[in-house]
UniProtKB/TrEMBL annotation:
This is Uncharacterized protein.
Length: 164
């Protein structure tokens, strides 16, 4: 899965589609910071990190995306020895086809937040996603210290109305 910094304003060109997908949630996060008197992000965005997985075919693009903000996520667990946090964060699926976008929102998914670079094996902690074409479903999960995080592996089937 690929991480994007959506706290930049304007977003980097490769992050722009995800900033657009999460526009309302980013605005709500900015407002929450402002309402608490935090003005350091005036003229920009409060911290927001997104992670995505993209599947393309000849007619459509499917995107699975999670957004990590302090106002939109809840803590699942901190893994101090591995310097990682797992949060439940909003998850969206977007289908881009023929110039139109259809989204499915309202789910939460596990977001891996690495608090600092890990020593030793850099691949010991990862978020992953795969897509099963036949089943029309994403499989997601989080691995920390080469072990799956309980409660973070799931299969997300695409509704036939979303992907005909």
């Amino acid at each position: 899965m690929i991480y994007s910094n959506l706290g930049e304003s304007p977003p980097a060109p490769d992050a722009a589609p995800y900033a657009e997908l999460w526009h309302n949630e980013i605005a709500a996060n900015d407002k929450a910071y402002s309402d608490q008197g935090d003005t350091q992000y005036t003229g920009g965005h409060a911290p927001a990190t997104e992670v995505h997985f993209v599947v393309r075919d000849t007619q459509r693009v499917a995107v699975l995306s999670l957004l990590d903000t302090s106002t939109g996520c809840t803590a699942k667990t901190d893994i101090a020895a591995d310097n990682a946090s797992i949060k439940f964060c909003p998850l969206k699926i977007a289908i881009y086809e023929a110039g139109a976008v259809t989204t499915a929102a309202g789910r939460m998914g596990c977001f891996l937040e690495l608090n600092a670079p890990t020593s030793g094996d850099p691949s010991n902690s990862v978020s992953y996603a795969t897509y099963d074409i036949g089943a029309r479903s994403f499989k997601t999960g989080v691995i920390v210290n080469h072990e799956p995080v309980p409660g973070c592996s799931e299969i997300i089937s695409l509704d036939k109305q979303l992907v005909p």
